[in-house]
Amino acid sequence: MKDHLLRYASPLGGITVASDGTGLVGLWFDDQKYFGAGLCAEREERSDSVLELAARWLDFYFSGKDPGFVPPLSLRTTPFRAAVVEALQEIPYGRTTTYKEIAARLSDGGRRTSARAVGGAVGHNPISLVVPCHRVIGSDGSLVGYAGGLDRKARLLALEGVEISALLGR
């Protein structure tokens, strides 16, 4: 099995998008931490319908619009990280939430989920932007943690219309 790769030139830097032919398996800024984690050893730059849909999604997104759809996903991750990805997908365009709030949602019965565990899972999100990990902020309202860099996180939130001056402590 080979993953298909697409290179996308965004206003915030190069992006590599990966598909297994049925869903997205990755979307990373080229200098992002954990770049390419989970990709098959065999891969080729080749378009497919999933990658074309992802490119359309990115075009909408970087034009400052909510794309209104999510390309199909093929997650290659643990059950806990998959639950975090699901929680991330529930964060509306132009809104933020905290690691602590996600942890509270994931806690059930006698099992508590820590904000730190959520932070680790968010940091390893293999499908940036489409799975909006940039919308997660610190419980004190500060701009913290983003594998693509805090400057890029601030720019993504600003693109979505989030007032970021308070997040930056200004």
Tag the structure with descriptive keywords.
Double Stranded RNA Binding Domain; alpha/beta; single chain; 170 residues; two-stranded parallel sheet; 2 domains; 4-stranded mixed beta sheet; Arc Repressor Mutant, subunit A
Quick summary of this structure?
The protein is of the alpha/beta class and 170 residues long.
The portion of residues assigned to helices is 25-40%
Kindly state the mean pLDDT as a whole number? 90
Number of strands: 6
Uncertain residue ranges: none
What's the alpha carbon Rg, rounded to whole Å? 16 Å
Q: How would you describe the shape? A: globular
* Helix-strand string: EEEEHHEHHEH
Give the CATH superfamily of the largest domain.
Winged helix-like DNA-binding domain superfamily/Winged helix DNA-binding domain
Q: In CATH, what is the class of the largest domain?
A: Mainly Alpha
Biggest sheet, spatial arrangement of strands: 3-2-1-4
Q: How many structural domains does the protein architecture include?
A: 2
Give the count of helical stretches.
5
CATH architecture of the largest domain: Orthogonal Bundle
Question: Which class do the helix and strand fractions yield?
Answer: alpha/beta
Biggest sheet character: 4 strands, mixed
Cα-to-Cα separation, first versus last residue: 49 Å
CATH topology-level fold name of the largest domain: Arc Repressor Mutant, subunit A
Could you tell me the strand content as a percent range? Answer: 15-25%
